[in-house]
Design brief:
- This is Glycosyltransferase family 2 protein.
- By secondary structure, this protein is an alpha/beta fold.
- The protein is 34% helix and 16% strand.
- The protein has a single domain, classed as Alpha-Beta Complex (Spore Coat Polysaccharide Biosynthesis Protein SpsA, Chain A).
- The two termini are 26 Å apart.
- Bound molecules: guanosine-5'-triphosphate and magnesium ion.
- The site of magnesium ion has 5 residues, from loops.
Length: 273
């Protein structure tokens, strides 16, 4: 199969000339998928992460946060074609932005390197995107999702911040601060990311809804980090997330006022494209 094929639902031209690939019995073919993995001292966890990545993905981009362990060597030994990028600044947000720039696939999937994300779920994210979503947003609290990794306090904080985002921006999210998401690369032009830390996922979730993109939640299970300790500090990073939410202007009313032409009416009148 060649890249002359177009994603039927989105109408976007493929941005690369890499080939579409057959996947499984329920997803026949997919555009090239890039997996971005931000990693800072995750050498011990990478074997678990890479083991679950499907072999049909187009590329893996590992963004190294100046690791002092063998993160880069281990990644290269596990996935010889891995594209390693050194991040310029500091923080997970900075790492992801650097990684997105290095991707050549039409679909980009974000996967943490601590062993908490199961690569076998990638097919669900890609299926949603191929079926018409712009942004496939992982959720630990949608039916079928779950978490082994969150304390009660973190769940409460995430719920409170998610409620504020839903009210302010007119979203209907069940989860907010979760790192497992996927999207068509064209989304990046509409969300113009500018942040450095763990607030990156919140900023993405807000900007996609503000841009009127089609967001679909994907139930996802977050496993316990396998080795090492979390880089997240609940209070410090929670406050950063809150600052992002308060700092973003809401265009909720304008989005609600925007009327959409009914494709059913158009087809009856013979005006469908
Ligand atoms: N390159 C890079 N990666 C980072 C940086 N900070 C965190 N990461 C990676 O981002 C991912 C998520 O970080 P974690 O420390 O697991 O934080 P978390 O998943 O939000 O929090 P927990 O639920 O406690 O694990 C991991 O793969 C980290 O290695 C950074 O500054 N640079
Ligand atoms: Mg983690």
């Amino acid at each position: 199969m060649s890249s002359v094929l177009r994603p039927a639902a989105t109408g976007h031209e493929p941005s690369t000339d890499v080939t579409y690939r057959p996947i499984s019995s329920h997803l026949a073919i997919t555009p090239p998928v890039s997996v971005v993995i931000p990693a800072m001292n995750e050498a011990e966890n990478l074997p678990y992460v890479f083991k679950t990545l499907p072999d049909w993905i187009h590329e893996v981009v590992l963004v190294d946060g100046n690791s002092t362990d063998d993160t880069v060597d281990v990644a290269r030994s596990l996935w010889p074609k891995v594209k390693v990028v050194e991040q310029r600044g500091k923080g997970k947000g900075d790492a992801l932005i650097t990684g997105f720039e290095a991707c050549s696939g039409d679909i980009i999937v974000m996967v943490d390197a601590d062993g908490s994300a199961d690569g076998n779920e990638i097919v669900s994210y890609v299926s949603a995107l191929v079926s018409g979503a712009d942004f496939a947003k992982g959720s630990r609290f949608a039916n079928g999702g779950g978490t082994d990794d969150m304390t009660f306090i973190r769940k409460l904080g995430n719920w409170a911040l998610c409620t504020v985002v839903n009210r302010k921006f007119g979203a209907r999210y069940t989860d907010l601060c979760y790192g497992y998401n996927a999207f068509w690369r064209h989304c990046l032009d509409k969300i113009d990311l500018d942040c450095t830390g763990f607030e990156v996922e919140t900023l993405m979730n807000i900007r996609v809804v503000k841009a009127g993109l089609k967001v679909q939640e994907i139930p996802s299970h977050e496993y316990l980090r396998i080795h090492g300790t979390s880089n997240l500090r609940a209070v410090r990073d929670g406050l950063r997330v809150l600052r992002v939410i308060l700092g973003e202007r809401s265009n909720r009313r304008a989005l609600r006022r925007r009327t959409r032409r009914s494709p059913m009416l158009d087809s009856v009148r013979g005006e469908a494209s």
